[in-house]
Design a protein that fits this description.
The chain is of the alpha+beta class and 286 residues long. The chain is built from 8 helices and 18 strands.
Length: 286
């Protein structure tokens, strides 16, 4: 029995090692350090070059303007997914380059409404060697004005008391200066093209708060099954939160998922109450 256990343990260790992604090689391609969680490598490129407003609210890059790339390794194959934040004038160039690099476009749409300048989001997909995929999407980023290097550290604003918001949502989230960010995974097994996708590959409901004085803006996207879409719309609108887009991000997902983006500005605790009511209409881990 002991020999069997050791054999199984050795097999698991080998398979785990086989699935590990070479983050050093990917960091070298991207020119900065990404994060690794399990077998997922992820790197973000905030559009800090853009000055975007919704009404009189200045949108921080971390609130809604973060291009990102996720690469997951399963065995000797890797899959890449992500989201590019673009000015309208950049969209045609990016589409052309994605096609040239043989990367799939899975969605083109808005996340916000009434923003200036107008922003579009392109979701992409690729499979193959992880380093080659990274080189391809790096060449796509190069046709945009996206800042490639890590921005210089900025003076952090005074600490914000999010305790009432976190009490309502039932978890602390991630605090980053004026931002409070959440990711709520779903309970189902989610796959794309037959490969199981962890929450870090854009499979978790994302909720972001940004403080400005005594008010906050919220945005993000709910990851929903079809039958959850309208109950979530009802919960959001009843609480003064506007759904801004409903669409897919993937082409071969199972079960079929719909992403609902939203926006509101107001008292943080009131916004959190509305978001909690919407979350309660979903099969999410809270």
């Amino acid at each position: 029995m002991k020999k069997i256990f050791l054999s199984v343990l050795a097999f698991i260790t080998v398979m785990y090692s086989f699935a590990q992604i070479d983050s050093t090689a990917l960091n070298n391609v991207f020119g900065k350090k990404g994060s690794v969680q399990g077998n997922v490598y992820k790197i973000s490129y905030p559009r800090s070059d853009l000055k975007v407003k919704v009404g009189d609210f200045a949108v921080a890059p971390g609130l809604a303007l973060g291009s990102w790339v996720g690469i997951i390794k399963m065995g000797n194959e890797s899959m890449m997914m992500g989201d590019l934040v673009l000015l309208d004038s950049e969209v045609p160039k990016v589409i052309k380059k994605l096609v040239e690099e043989n990367l799939d476009i899975t969605a083109i749409h808005n996340h916000l409404i009434n923003e200036t300048p107008t922003i579009k989001y392109i979701h992409f997909h690729g499979s193959g060697d992880a380093v080659q995929l990274a080189e391809k999407i790096k060449s796509v980023l190069a046709v945009t004005a996206t800042p490639i290097t890590t921005p210089a550290a900025q003076t952090q604003p005074k600490s914000i008391d999010w305790s009432k918001v976190t009490a309502i949502l039932g978890t602390t989230g991630k605090q980053n200066g004026m931002l409070l960010q959440y990711a709520f995974p779903r309970n189902e097994k989610l796959t794309e093209s037959g490969m199981e996708m962890p929450p870090s590959m854009g499979m978790a409901t994302s909720i972001n708060f940004q403080m400005d004085g005594n008010r906050a803006a919220i945005t993000g996207d709910f990851v929903l099954l079809a039958d959850e879409v309208n109950p979530v719309i009802k919960a959001l609108t009843e609480n003064g939160i506007s759904p801004t887009a409903i669409h897919s991000h993937m082409l071969h997902d199972e079960p079929r998922l719909f992403m609902m983006h939203f926006w509101a500005v107001g008292e943080p605790e009131k916004l959190a109450t509305g978001l909690k009511a919407a979350l309660d209409k979903t099969n999410s881990k809270k």
